[in-house]
Amino acid sequence: MTSLLDTEEEIMLRDAARGFLDGAAPVSALRANRDAGRPCDPGLWREMAQMGWAGVLVPEDAGGAEMGHRAAGILSHEMGVTLAASPFLSTAVIAATALRHAAGARARDALAGIAAGETTYALALDEGARHLPEHTALRAERAGNGYRLSGSKTFVADGTTATRVLVLARTGGVPGEAEGLSLFDIDAERAGLSRARLDTVDARDHARLDFDGVEAIGDDLLGEVDDAMRLLRPALDAGQAALAAELAGLANGVSAMTLGYLKERRQFDRAIGSFQALQHRAAHLWAEIEVTTSAIANAGRVLDETPDDATLAVSLAKARAAKTADLAVREGIQMHGGIGMTDDHDAGFFMKRARVGAEWLGDYGYHAARVASARGF
Amino acid sequence: MPAPAIEPEQFRTQISDWIMDNCPASLRNRPMSEDSIVWGGRRWTFRDDDQRLWLERARQEGLTAPRWPTEYGGGGMTRDQEKILREEMARLGAPPPLESFGLWMLGPALLAFGNEAQKARHLPPITQGEIRWCQGYSEPGAGSDLANVQTRAEDMGDHYLVNGQKVWTSYADKADWIFALVRTDRDAPKHKGISFLLMDMETPGITTRPIRLISGKSPFCETFFDNVKVPKENLVGEVNRGWDIAKYLLTHEREMIGGGARGLLGGRSLGAFIDDLDDGALNDPVIRTEAMAAEVDTLAFAMTMERYKDHAEAGGGVGNASAMLKYYGTELNKRRYELLMSAAGSDALEWDGPHGTLAAEWLRTKANSIEGGTSEVMLDIIAKRVLELPSA
Lengths: 377, 392
Known about the structure:
The structure holds two protein chains of two kinds.
Chain A: H1 8-24, H2 27-36, H3 42-50, H4 69-81, H5 88-102, H6 104-115, E1 121-124, E2 139-143, E3 146-157, E4 164-170, E5 181-187, E6 193-198, E7 206-216, E8 221-222, H7 228-264, E9 266-267, E10 270-271, H8 276-305, H9 311-336, H10 347-359, H11 364-374
Parallel strand pairs in A: 1-4
Antiparallel strand pairs in A: 2-3, 3-7, 4-5, 5-8, 6-7, 9-10
Helix pairs in contact in A: 1-4, 4-7, 4-8, 5-6, 5-7, 7-8, 7-9, 7-10, 8-9, 9-10, 9-11
Chain B: H1 8-22, H2 49-60, H3 79-91, H4 101-113, H5 116-127, E1 133-136, E2 152-155, E3 159-170, E4 177-183, E5 194-200, E6 206-211, E7 220-231, E8 235-236, H6 242-265, H7 270-277, H8 285-313, H9 321-344, H10 358-365, H11 375-386
Parallel strand pairs in B: 1-4
Antiparallel strand pairs in B: 2-3, 3-7, 4-5, 5-8, 6-7
């Protein structure tokens, strides 16, 4: 397998992304969006699309940049550093990967829409408080040439802003079984689908979606009936790896802010960063971030080189990233002291997004158990 | 044996064929135990003939020091070739033919800092397993504050006169030679008056005394120097510049100690190890949870070792990050041994019980985060040199 180090091209991509995001999507932009009740900034996504980020996983013949999962991880990481809110994960990573595996002219058109920045997606998956795709109960019942979808989804990222929705629905079997699930790709404005924004701590777009006999025609079925996992598994792998990268970026972002504060804040006539109690904790955090960085790089590499066997690498990355981001934000607030508890300070934004990111697409326990199972226990 | 410039896959085939033809069957896939390590040296006795045969065959091909120049008995391999060799040895269950502080520490130091005569004299006996070396760094007053060495080497014109005491000298009672940090200038700032000196342990005035540890073993000694006359040609590098060599070796040592965590399981999962100890232990929810977390961290740490290896190979070196590898790897290793002890329950409590010497190994890991720089010193290094946090 190739090296875990960034190539020269990857370093350039990272630097370019950093430069762009520092200007276009600093943490203050997230604050402004929150204060205005806006989940994200559509103008930002248009610019990202123009730079090829929307098409990072879209094949060149569909107008994409086809840069691969390592590149997607780099972009996601950099977005995490300043908490940039965008449809990147839902659309450019998860939906694009599912559509790539669906193949066919219809999927190709959808991918072209993603690469152009015109189509955005939300993945409507979980129905309860935990990430458990197999527990899907939302029903898709045969009706004429198509289906009717009934049921509810919750914690749907980008659920109110996306133009299309990927819905995991049960066409057979019972909740708890991986068989009998199908994936539908429907217009977000379709009759019978109501979307309600959840006022989540990270101030981003999360929604509850209610399906009341929503019509899905045959063309809306992505892949084969009862075979959603063939598309969803790789899509979730890609999404989990990119989310892990975002969390690692978040850890780096809050840790840089904290280190800056340790060097500048003076108490007892000295910089607080000169106290060994704080130095050792900062050093330990840096060690954890380094170890997590390796797991993230490895996940991107495995997804690019041996994607059929990515479960271990992806879950390892997501488990590590959730834990490391948690440590980074807790240390961030504690080391900032009282100022870190105020809404005026940015540290809290990192803590809130880290909490959401830890839950989305499977929490630490979910992924650690998958690692253990892949390792034979 | 393979010529240097061949395709990696061809090299792999040749190496694995050679191992299968030459490594005695009795040594392959044998569980690691203390008597399976061959240290070599003047007074070495092999456990059995197969051990001796394996060393003789391997050293003939330069495999005891795969990357050292062939003129010193090394294998002249590239990094990639050495990696393939190690992978094939692990895959075929072939043990290292020889391990020693000469191979790990002194050899690399001489290759980097030694003169031609020193290399020609000292490297071949290391690769052949004829001379066993020990390391004389720490002193009673120089532990974490290593640069505070007080053992003196006085310039007597045609030789140095060494007086003082070292402590934690690994296997000094079994070693033939020692490489030591000695003070050659008492007036200079403490880092600037240290030199790197080689001494034959048979020189009059050198005595050793083993230290009994909590594990019941005595891998370390106190070593005393009483008017020891050392030829001047035994000083490596420049006089008073020994700290440069010490730092170089410490970086090397930290990477190695940190890397031990990866070698420990040889790719096997912690779950598999726990199952071997007690096949019901993983049903205990606390053991299971902790084992899963330790497995996650172990795999991510192994990738970190790989990433830093890649970095070093790309010419970037590892530098101060070796402190992180040492800190993380040793703390992880201690955590894993605590888990293995919990999993084995009361069966692990005998010195030589159903699980062999697990108890002694568990106790031995407690030194991991002390030797070669404590975890706290490693965190200091990261805080000051990597994170650039201010001094008090």
